[in-house]
């Protein structure tokens, strides 16, 4: 289980499980991301930004630059993307989607709209 302090959609758990088979450092890499999100959960361009055009109140943020030790020498250019909902009034985030840019070009907007309104 990911962590009760960092709730996630069940489909996010499946994303993580599938990707961590190919990229063994991914779970540890995401622990670093979580530590940063505790301090700065809001969007921080160019590393992360709020997705536009969804028509929902909840800010949905996409992180584009995630460092991974599975990609030696690539730094934040690993290609992983993390999408999460941020509830500023509750100081809470919910992980929605995790993917690699070579396997998927963009976030799954249908997934977002299915779970958030």
Our count of helices gives 3
Number of DSSP-assigned strands: 4
Shape by Cα distribution: globular
Helical/strand content category: alpha+beta
For the largest beta sheet, what order do the strands appear in spatially? Answer: 1-2-3-4
Q: Could you report the average pLDDT, rounded to the nearest whole number?
A: 87
Helix content: 25-40%
Computed Rg:
13 Å
Order of helices and strands: HHEEEEH
Largest sheet at a glance?
Answer: 4 strands, antiparallel
**Low-confidence blocks of residues:** none
**Fraction in beta strands:** 15-25%
Gap between N and C termini, in Å?
25 Å
Describe the 3D structure.
It is built from 3 helices and 4 strands. A 4-stranded antiparallel β-sheet has the order 1-2-3-4. The longest helix is centred in the first third of the chain and has 14 residues, at 26-39. The protein has 117 residues and is α+β, with helices and mostly antiparallel strands. The chain has helices at 10-22, 26-39, 109-115, and strands at 48-50, 60-63, 80-87, 92-100. A hairpin with a 4-residue loop joins β3 (80-87) and β4.
Write the topology of this structure.
Elements: H1 10-22, H2 26-39, E1 48-50, E2 60-63, E3 80-87, E4 92-100, H3 109-115
Antiparallel strand pairs: 1-2, 2-3, 3-4
Characteristic key phrases:
117 residues, alpha+beta, 3 helices, 4 strands
Give a brief rundown of this model.
This protein is of the alpha+beta class and 117 residues long.
